Amino acid sequence: MTRTIQAITIAAILTVSAFAFPLGIADAMGSFLDVKKAKVGTDSSEFEKAEFKTKAKIPTDGSGGAFGFGIISGAGLEAIAVTTTHSGVLDSEAQSDVNDPVFHNHYVALQDSQADGSGLCPGLEVRDITFQEPGDVDVENKKAIMEDVPYYFAGTHSLTGDNINFLADENVGAAVSFTIDPVPSASNIQAVCINDVAATNNLKVKSVND
User: Fold this and answer.
1) Each residue's pLDDT tens digit, 56-107
2) How far is it, in rounded angstroms, from Cα 191 to Cα 183?
3) Bridge-partner residues for 53, per DSSP?
4) In angstroms, what is the C-alpha Rg of the chain?
5) pLDDT band at residue 10 under the 50/70/90 scheme
6) Within the chain, where are the H helices?
7) Where are the domains of the chain?
8) Distance, CA of 199 to CA of 210 (rounded, Å)
C-alpha cells in the first residue's frame, strides 16, 4: 500500500508541474539540473545523508538562477526536504543577506496552484516553507549533499512568520531537481512557483540500520 501511494504521489507531482521534463532534457537549461544518480541514507528519525550527483558542475555563485534538489517521501507534497540556491530573496537563516546565493535547506509543502483556478503558478506552488534550516548541505563540483535532516521539523514560515511543522518519513520515493520562480517578482512575492520538476531514474535508498 505504501509503495502504491508513493507512486501515485510522485506521478502527481510530475504531472501537476506544467513544465516537468524527463531525465536528460534538463541539458537544454543547464545539465547541473540533470541528476544522474541519487543516494539517500535513512534511519528511524532522519535523512542521514542524501547525495545528488549531477551531469555538470553545480553553480554556487547565483549564476545558475534559482533552483534546487529535493527528497520526496511518503508524506508527498506535505513535507519535502529541499536544498536551494537563489539571490534576491532572503528566506533562510543560512543567508547573510538578500543577495546571498548560498545553498540552504528548507522543508516545504506544495499545492496545485491551478486546482481551484485562482493560483498564480502554472502548476506547483509553495504553500509552506521554513525559515529555519533542517540539517546541513555541502555542494562541491557535481555533487550536492544534504545531511542530518530530521523527518519532523518545526519552525516559522519564511514569508509569513506563521508557526509551521512538517513530518516526512523514511519511505523515500524520489529525488528531484526543480527551478524556482517568485511571481510577479522577487521584490513583490505573491506566489513561489516550482517548475521544471525532474526525478532521477537512478535512486538508491538504504537504511543505515540495515
Assistant:
1) 999 999 999 999 999 999 999 999 999 999 999 999 999 999 999 999 999 9
2) 5
3) 37, 143
4) 16
5) low
6) 2-16
7) 2-205
8) 25
Q: Per residue, what are the HEC states of 125-139? A: EEEEEECCCCCEEEE
Among 110-119, 127-136, 180-189, which is the least confidently predicted range? 110-119
Average pLDDT, rounded, for the chain: 88
* Assigned C-alpha cell, 29: 537549461
**Closest of 171, 178, 173 to residue 124, by C-alpha:** 178
- Grid cell 550527483 is found at 53
Helices and strands (H and E) in the chain: how many: 1, 13
Strands 136-140 and 143-150: antiparallel
Q: Cell 536528460 maps to which residue?
A: 24
d(CA 142, CA 185) in angstroms, rounded, equals: 29
Rounded alpha-carbon distances, angstroms, from residue 31 to 53, 58, 111, 142: 11, 9, 27, 10
Provide the grid cell at 206. Answer: 538504504
CA distance 168 to 176: 16
Cell numbers describing residue 82: 529541499
- The x, y and z cell numbers of residue 1, run together, are 500500500
128: pLDDT strictly greater than 80: yes
Contacts of 1 (CB under 8 A, 6+ apart): none
Q: Name the percent of the chain lying above pLDDT 70.
A: 83
**Cell numbers at residue 188, please?**
513583490
Q: Quick check: helix, strand or coil at residue 206?
A: strand
